[in-house]
Amino acid sequence: MTFYDIIRTLLMAPALVCSPLLLASECEITLSNTHVDYGVQQHPSGAVALQGNHRLDSREIRLNASCRDDSAIELTLHGALHANQMKFSDQGQVSIRLSRAQLDGRPVGLAKPGDLGATGAGVESLAAAPGDVIVPVEAGRPARGKALVLSLEIVPQLPLSDMRSRDAKVHEGQLRIDVNGS
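Above: the chain sequence. Below: its structure as tokens.
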């Protein structure tokens, strides 16, 4: 591999920003990590063609949403979209998966409000993207509680053509998550 085939890229996966919305119940949200840094990356060895994508390692972040009062909690994801996923750099994207939800210490399913009839009790793991609203679900209905904890898995990917450069490049994306308790 020549110098021109190596990319020295500082990859900063989505900076996750949380902002609480104050409505009927005051709620706040915290993340185990609000910034994920992938460090210096190189063009993958053996990847000769400029076609295709390169997936970076999966990272998991714990999300905690807490409300002062017993509430129906909604999480809303905001950010730029690319190919129905969160935009990452110019042409890349980040897949987002929420899983292992617990509301007040008990396991609950997850659903998008429009899918409640189709998913019944919700699902254990749910793909999400900016623009989605996610709710914890029990017995086919939005669950009520004070403390929601779940895992947020992010997997960025970039076109191989974006990773082929002799100059350092910074790739980044942003996701904001709002919490609403009513």
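The CA atoms of residues 9 and 123 lie 37 Å apart.
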